[in-house]
Specification:
This protein is of the alpha+beta class. Helices cover 60% and strands 12% of the residues. The chain contains 20 helices and twelve strands. The strands form three sheets. The chain has a five-stranded antiparallel sheet with strand order 2-1-5-4-3. The protein has a five-stranded mixed sheet with strand order 7-8-6-11-12, sandwiched between helices. The radius of gyration is 45 Å and the shape is elongated. Its main location: membrane.
Amino acid sequence: MEPVALGCAYFLAASLALASSRFEGGLAFIWGANALLMAYLLTSRTASWPWALIACGMASALSTALWGMGTLAAVPMAGINLLEALIVALICRRFARGGKFAGSMQPLFVFILALCGPANLIAGLAAATVASALTTVSFGASLLQWYTGHVLGALTCTPILMMLMQGELRRWFGQTSRRGKWEALALLLLFALATAFVFYAARYPMLFALLLPMVAMVFRLGNLGAAASVMILAIIGGMATMTGHGPLYMIPGTLGERMQFFQLFLAFSFLLSMPIAAELNSRRRLFQMLQESEARYRAIAENSGDVVLNISVGGVIEYASPAAAEQIGCAPELLVGQDAANLVDPADREQVIATLDRALEQPGEVQTVEFRPFISAQGSDWCEMVARAVVDERGLPTGLVSTIRDMSRHKARQRALQQVAALDSLTGADSRRAFLEKLEEEMLRVRHGARACLLLIDIDHFKAVNDGYGHGAGDRVLAGFVERLRPGLRSVDSIGRLGGEEFAILLSGTDVVRASMICERLREMVTAHPVQIDSGEVIPVTFSAGLVALGGQSEGQAVLEAADKALYNAKHSGRNCLRLAA
């Protein structure tokens, strides 16, 4: 039914224009029928276009045959009308997809360019050719009649019709209070009275006097106010001009020229109000978004366990969330006006200030820093601050939003995980990574004059234990082996498991002679206490060892390789013995 209704509406609009505005016997000076087709094409799916074009094409041909230039012009003029509307619709769909004229300026700007440019230049030349061939009106006059009538009619009517088709009026009625509706009605009546006065009662040309109430309606009613004011102006002003009343009748010229001037006034009035309406809509959406954002921000800030701060560009606290009382031990209102750096331990203030400065210098990025608090209600050891700049419409920072979170539990878990990662889970000795780190630290001390030795140990015939008693027994031997070594080590010494049955002992402050004596004592302790496994059997344990003194010029890998060569010699010397590195 939509194409049929559209075709009937098109026929009525076209017939009215042809019957009332063919002042010189050629083309109509007023033409709003194509605005109806353009509005439909711009607000509907492309799948429905063919039937709409057929319906409007038939309506155009019929109205031209009955009221226009006759049957010879019916089909050509119908095709030209459809071509104009189709060009506008295709360009707008390509460059302003889904755009609403009331929402922003880009769709309206694309529409104006498409309408005034290719659509009516092409269609106008074709229509002027047909009109000049079938009537007494010249080609130039016909082109001017087409261009002004179609461009001005479409500029005025298409955006209004699109608003109606997109449900703007229905939404306004559903969202506006009764008081708002009465206010709108009063404004419309006042504007109608002002328009009637200017066109029927005023003794002087006072068209300019209508711009002020029109702008006021736009401010109060938005884009619908702009549309309603133009419709009132078109009805009252158009009837007055056609019947010989109003300021435009004071202009010398024909009725057709006066109507062209009136359409130009309508178009410029509407184009004046539309940018204002678009800007107001944009500001209303922005204000609504700000209100929603403020509500979310308040809800998060006032119910979060983290402290939320608003900090000025100068580093002064402008807002502190209620969590400050619990986390920092200070009422939020007492923090306002204080320097944010005062919350930080003096040892970490420089790092925190640098982070806040970096957040201001890079507004689009989030900056994070960990610090120790100066005071803390809960005795927090560490806190984490996350900061991001707040910018104005020019992208310049106006302050910072920051959150402060207690990191003490996280740091404690982190230390616990590090401790777990530093120990071998089976034997309790240092892991390979942790031991090698200790080795590097010890070698640094050796470079500064200290003494130390590295003992590399391998349990003798450990593979036979795994093969004969199982891996469970092997694990028990490994754990028992470390248990028997520990009593013979000092607190400054370190033992680590490098892998499998291979261990290493770092003897600090010890030369090779003393280290050799310690190794022999350890070997005796292990030999004297065999390891008892779960089955009750006792497994004797011995080890081979390679010893190397840490040198000031040596690297960690070189020291390990030297100790490994000495261990290799011990294994090939009958095992259960110590060999020194060359």
